[in-house]
Automatic annotation (TrEMBL):
Keywords: Activator, Cytoplasm, DNA-binding, Manganese, Metal-binding, Repressor, Transcription, Transcription regulation. GO terms for molecular function: DNA binding; DNA-binding transcription factor activity; manganese ion binding; protein dimerization activity. DNA binding is strongly activated by Mn(2+). Belongs to the DtxR/MntR family. NCBIfam families: PRK03902.1. InterPro entries: DtxR_MntR_Metal-Reg, Fe_dep_repressor, Fe_dep_repressor_sf, HTH_DTXR, HTH_tscrpt_reg_MntR, Iron_dep_repressor, WH-like_DNA-bd_sf, WH_DNA-bd_sf. The keyword Membrane does not apply. Central regulator of manganese homeostasis. This is HTH-type transcriptional regulator MntR. It comes from Paenalkalicoccus suaedae.
């Protein structure tokens, strides 16, 4: 299982390849706001763990293992963002909150959050009821 730092890299690499068709060390460094030398070290670790294939000066490709995990990490991130919206977290805070919790939740917890998101998406009146409860609680404070 990848470390939280490895997960951040895999998620970003997966997104870059999905968006642009490729991911260069400089692109990853810019996206994660780290030095290219840090990216090179991590990419070498990811290569050693068979998440990707890296050839110096030639670029990198995710392995099937890396693609599978990258896709799941992107799903987790997007699901948690949607969950935060549903429960009424301010949009300006969502990214920071998701980054703070995503590595600390089990996949079982992620699956249950997915069930809850689906529950609210299937019937928007449920979301309206939640919003009313939240407003009532705010008015009590």
């Amino acid at each position: 299982m990848p470390t939280p730092s490895m997960e951040d890299y895999l998620e970003r690499i997966y997104l870059l390849i999905d968006e642009k068709g490729y991911a260069r060390v400089s692109d990853i460094a810019d996206a994660l706001e780290v030095h290219p030398s840090s990216v090179t070290k991590m990419v070498q670790k990811l290569d050693a763990n068979e998440y990707l294939v890296y050839e110096k000066y030639r670029g990198l490709m995710l392995t099937s293992k890396g693609k599978k995990i990258g896709k799941r990490l992107v799903y987790r991130h997007e699901l948690l963002e949607e969950f935060m919206r549903i429960i009424g977290v301010d949009d300006a805070r969502i990214y920071v909150d998701v980054e703070g919790i995503e590595h600390h939740l089990s996949w079982e917890a992620i699956d249950r959050i997915g069930d809850l998101v689906q529950y609210f998406e299937e019937d928007t009146s449920r979301l309206d009821q939640l919003r009313n409860v939240q407003k009532d609680n705010e008015n009590k404070d």
